[in-house]
Amino acid sequence: MKVKVGINGYGTIGKRVAYAVTRQDDMKLIGVTKTKPDFEAYRAKELGIPVYAAGEEFLPRFENAGFEVAGTLSDLLEKVDVIVDATPGGMGAKNKAVYEKAGVKAIFQGGEKASTAEVSFVAQANYEKALGKDYVRVVSCNTTGLIRTLSAVQEYIDYVYAVMIRRAADPNDIKHGPINAIKPSVTVPSHHGPDVQTVIPINIETSAFVVPTTIMHVHSIMVELKKPLEAKDVIDIFENTTRVLLFEKEKGFESTAQLIEFARDLHREWNNLYEIAVWKESISVRGNRLFYIQAVHQESDVVPENIDAIRAMFEMADKWESIRKTNQSLGILK
Amino acid sequence: MKVKVGINGYGTIGKRVAYAVTRQDDMKLIGVTKTKPDFEAYRAKELGIPVYAAGEEFLPRFENAGFEVAGTLSDLLEKVDVIVDATPGGMGAKNKAVYEKAGVKAIFQGGEKASTAEVSFVAQANYEKALGKDYVRVVSCNTTGLIRTLSAVQEYIDYVYAVMIRRAADPNDIKHGPINAIKPSVTVPSHHGPDVQTVIPINIETSAFVVPTTIMHVHSIMVELKKPLEAKDVIDIFENTTRVLLFEKEKGFESTAQLIEFARDLHREWNNLYEIAVWKESISVRGNRLFYIQAVHQESDVVPENIDAIRAMFEMADKWESIRKTNQSLGILK
Amino acid sequence: MKVKVGINGYGTIGKRVAYAVTRQDDMKLIGVTKTKPDFEAYRAKELGIPVYAAGEEFLPRFENAGFEVAGTLSDLLEKVDVIVDATPGGMGAKNKAVYEKAGVKAIFQGGEKASTAEVSFVAQANYEKALGKDYVRVVSCNTTGLIRTLSAVQEYIDYVYAVMIRRAADPNDIKHGPINAIKPSVTVPSHHGPDVQTVIPINIETSAFVVPTTIMHVHSIMVELKKPLEAKDVIDIFENTTRVLLFEKEKGFESTAQLIEFARDLHREWNNLYEIAVWKESISVRGNRLFYIQAVHQESDVVPENIDAIRAMFEMADKWESIRKTNQSLGILK
Amino acid sequence: MKVKVGINGYGTIGKRVAYAVTRQDDMKLIGVTKTKPDFEAYRAKELGIPVYAAGEEFLPRFENAGFEVAGTLSDLLEKVDVIVDATPGGMGAKNKAVYEKAGVKAIFQGGEKASTAEVSFVAQANYEKALGKDYVRVVSCNTTGLIRTLSAVQEYIDYVYAVMIRRAADPNDIKHGPINAIKPSVTVPSHHGPDVQTVIPINIETSAFVVPTTIMHVHSIMVELKKPLEAKDVIDIFENTTRVLLFEKEKGFESTAQLIEFARDLHREWNNLYEIAVWKESISVRGNRLFYIQAVHQESDVVPENIDAIRAMFEMADKWESIRKTNQSLGILK
């Protein structure tokens, strides 16, 4: 028996999760919702994915364009075991009542508050916490990135200070700026530290900045250690951490541009770089402080988490079995 | 018997042509050259592609990195029937003597002068001119884009004025600016008009501007017609023109960003958009003037031309057979 | 007697016009309006300019911040002879009824429709048309730029095709993108041609593109001539045209960045470049076609027009006297 | 008697220092050097500043352009008491021998190694160290920014970790990228920490990133305190620190764009923001850690330091007298 999955919202995250679902042997994609018949909707149809209107209010748009939908969100909810809410931040909380009423489990994304779900989730950090749950929140791309590497060195952490340099808009988003400025979150520490703490109990503070780029976030991480650790140990640890990859500037990885080029060279779908990219040369320890720099592909790093969350919620596999299946199906390198 | 192909230069164009060669049933990729052992070189090796040093002077770099090469360019030249020169603009002309001495045919890219080769080439416009030739130049990405659409309406053209708004650097190139300025080619008309004339004999003048974007060029084209033509005729013509696609703003194609997203949604390798993208709504005729706007994916539009040029040079197929084979092998939509 | 001037909207255009008014010996700045007490409002106060709330609904914002205003827009209207409406595009039309009721003359900006005012205005092209009028529209930055140079060669024009490459946002605007894309106006010809025709009766068609830069627009202009003209004649004409300056790439003016640097080197307030910048080397004539490239500083080129419009509306000076006074007071080079 | 000052290199820094010299009542600008007759050279001439060729090898360029120079660098050196070396990074060290031979004192910029000069200099931190010296290095824009604020809280500092988000190119520089990427300095800690230590003896580590913007650098600073300090104390301290200004997001200072707009609104020459801009809301203390965010106008923050350095080298004024004179002459707010 395959778990029947619906996706509410077929944008940057939704379409990637939909694709990932189709790559699993224990899941079936039932349908996706759209608010308008744009090229992404046509592409879904071309792929044979049933497209539902995200609400009755959107039906006229589809009718006017002659785009036949399979129904509305409520129709979709009747057919699925779980809905992945990939709507814009804050809407998931509003949708929750609808999912509850329909009696379907739901996964929310990091744009929702932690309180929207029973557990906040990063597979390699707390898979077990989501076992059997009805409502799970996959944390944001940045938080996922922090947790992937920090959970790997968690036992050494006394305190973390992370500075996040964030892309201002996704490649497909032409509405948002800035075009030529740096915009700080002036409230320091920023909200990302507490968000990490919804998954792993570490002492962490962060600050965040928006810069005019579209392709990846970058994190400058400093860890105050509570027991000795050398740079080569950290390299070993990260080499053995799933969904974390080391990249060398010496091989030409000078910026986020070459990391994306790496994903393109692999012919990854949408140049997804599901793995967190750590610059190997940046890993250093001075006294009791560990430093490293990592980059996060905001469009895709949470995709495997959504798949693993489904398995945990239906208790379909244990942690490492799920991670292994997800990794293998998506071509995640390790 | 398959034609044995080498690629001199495994960068933006070279790696795409190499990939395209591996997709042909009548060609065999013998090897590629690199000047340094960067991640692209490692990727080639992973793919089982023999990597040669682009010259003896580069051997120490590979040796120091412990990267084993299959030889140097001269070794590669001994094994191939044709070399695709994908070196930086201007270097091809210098390399020509080496190719001549080795007795191999050669394809040059648009960064070289027309006089470097016997013929300048765009498959759908002048395939036959390259039949049996030893030296063929595939024209630049911009010139290819102009010729694809203009050759389709060639009989109607009295005069063309095209304004090219060019991306300043490729996605993988972080060296070049500008970051926040528009840079005109102050010599008007620019060199692109005469370059078009190396392939089709039309009356054309152009101007060109560099702007801070990495993903696509855009052309604003105005054609003075010598006989009547309506917008709907042009739509028909372009719908029946190979390697040209119509995109509608109404479906969400508001900018070059969504065109690239379309290629990503198709899971095209490196988000290649081999086809020239014409905005359907932009096609209009007022009096004796036709207007339209098109976008060019500078990283990939010349790739199919390189493949077709090989077939023409070895007289392996006639024009439409070659175009059909190339299109099918690369997933080109029409 | 000085004309009493109020400014409704103290943003990019409003603050520059306010400054310009203070530089005139025949005008008096009575006050400006703001919707919120931001740093621009504080700066106005520092300069001794009375600040009014743009409406009663905005008063609480000022009160909460402890920022004392001099009243609201209606109070300001009681004290002025003319109001310069520098509100966001489209709001001017709505404000007109208020101005009419208050019995004050009004100047609108290019974001309003031509029908909002009795005349659309560029001083050097049609100053006389505005004499004694109550409602005048200063056309947009792009339209002003086109008219400054085209009116200088008007008698030679058979047809104009202009391509506008537009900055996506002003330097102070961090909300708007795109960050990495080119966005065409897919309706060709664009609305700019008809807008030019509200001032000068020439045959003109245009297309327009938005690109990720903040500092200047650039226009690529092609004129089909109805009588012979040589490039050197055009250079002579432009050298004798007010508010048009020739710049040479040879002297380092390679892009819009160096044009702004020129204004900064002059210590112009806000690096205003009131003059339209034409690249001298770009001026060329081939057959019956004239080509040239110009750049427009969108933040400031319409400022002198607002001043001249005031003089025309109150019949304070004839055309060349007003232009001379305005130029001299603002340091316009010619 | 006024000190006679020459400027070697009339680019971004050189032209600003030249201007600043002309604003001092105890200095006289003798001349500046250029390598080519570009618009900056013409502007210097317009301002009545003698222009010298930066070397004999550059004379033909000036001759060909009909630009009359006042001589070469060696002629200039004969006439001055001190030369401000504002040549590109690394050239100053090479020029030092020439200055020594000519027997003139010299100021170097932060692109040179500390060992090039006798002392590295930030006026408010170590003015006295430069008294009577022959060779002084004004540290880089970023290092100056760090020292201005950190020296004000120096007695509280146990350890500093600063992350620098750097503009990729100056507004006038269209050669350098990246256009759409973030580029880390992968060697962590970066060289900026040791550079701070050439001026003040604090325990500091840094990391650095280049992002696609041209207008300002931003620093995210975390200080581990060795004695208690509250946010309001830090606000008090910074309010009383020269060349440091507090800006509030609440007043509209959301990004670096509005900081530059502030300087433009002041009609500062070249929109210079000589002062370091600290976001008031960002100042916070949590436990023993102080956080704050600041921005640095890379084109101008070192200009007052160059002026103060001259006074120190000739023992023309004591520290606070010099700072006061420099501030007043340049309109520095405090």
What does this structure look like?
The structure is a homotetramer of 334-residue chains. Chain A is of the alpha/beta class and 334 residues long. Chain A folds into 2 domains: 3-139 and 302-330, Rossmann fold (3-Layer(aba) Sandwich); 142-296, Dihydrodipicolinate Reductase, domain 2, CATH 3.30.360. In chain A, 32% of the residues lie in helices and 24% in strands. In chain A, strands 8, 9, 10, 11, 12, 13, 14 and 15 form an 8-stranded mixed sheet that branches. Chain A is globular and about 65 Å long.
Q: Please tell me the overall pLDDT of chain A.
A: 98
CATH class of the largest domain in chain A: Alpha Beta
Topology-level CATH name of the largest domain in chain A = Rossmann fold
| Helix-strand pattern of chain A | EHEHEHHEHEEHEHEEHEEHEHEEEHH
Which value, in Å, is the CA radius of gyration of chain A?
Answer: 20 Å
Oligomer: homotetramer
Strand count, sense and barrel status of the largest sheet of chain A are: 8 strands, mixed
Query: What number of structural domains do the residues of chain A give?
Result: 2
Total helical elements of chain A: 12
Family (chains A, B, C, D): Belongs to the glyceraldehyde-3-phosphate dehydrogenase family.
GO biological process, one term (chains A, B, C, D): lysine biosynthetic process via diaminopimelate
Subcellular location (chains A, B, C, D): Cytoplasm
GO molecular function (chains A, B, C, D): 4-hydroxy-tetrahydrodipicolinate reductase; glyceraldehyde-3-phosphate dehydrogenase (NAD+) (phosphorylating) activity; glyceraldehyde-3-phosphate dehydrogenase (NADP+) (phosphorylating) activity; NAD binding; NADP binding
